[in-house]
Amino acid sequence: MMTELEAIYRKGTLELKSLLPVKEGEVVRVVVMTDKEVSLQDRVAVMHKVADAWLAQQPAQAIPSMPDYPQEEWVRLDAELDKVLAEIEQKAARYSEEEIAADVEEAVKATRKQKRQRKKKK
């Protein structure tokens, strides 16, 4: 799970403006960006960097191998994801977290269904 929250930095401490959706005592990773870095492109760039650093720390057997796409396809897919994220950000303000979570769950189910259908065709 990745969540973005606002916080205020005071006297060496981050004061969160809302509660974290995690269990008490759960370990979390924190990425800090100031207001001057809040553009979508900046946030996506930071997310990519954090994800790449996390992946580099994982044992090889912990992460399934990535599809062997040509570099051009990775660039296209990355640009497509960035476009989708921008669209989501524009629309997200209109909906509650529960509505968004339900839509994400529905999309995951649809994607898994499509994946199973593709496997059956092979």
Description:
The protein has one domain. By secondary structure, it is mainly α. The mean pLDDT is 83. The protein has a two-stranded antiparallel ribbon with strand order 1-2. It has three helices and two strands. The chain has helices at 40-57, 71-92, 97-121, and strands spanning 7-10, 13-16. β1 (7-10) and β2 form a beta hairpin.
Succession of helices and strands: EEHHH
Which percent bin holds the helix content? 40-55%
Low-pLDDT regions: none
- The secondary structure category is mainly alpha
Measured by DSSP, the beta-strand proportion falls in 5-15%
Strand order of the largest sheet: 1-2
Number of helices: 3
Look at the structure and give the mean pLDDT.
83
Shape: globular
- Distance from N terminus to C terminus (CA atoms, Å) equals 32 Å
How many separate domains make up the residues? 1
Q: How many β-strands, per DSSP?
A: 2
Keywords:
two-stranded antiparallel sheet
Tell me briefly what this model is.
With 122 residues, the protein is mainly alpha-helical. The protein has helices at residues 40-57, 71-92, 97-121; strands at residues 7-10, 13-16. The protein has 3 helices and 2 strands.
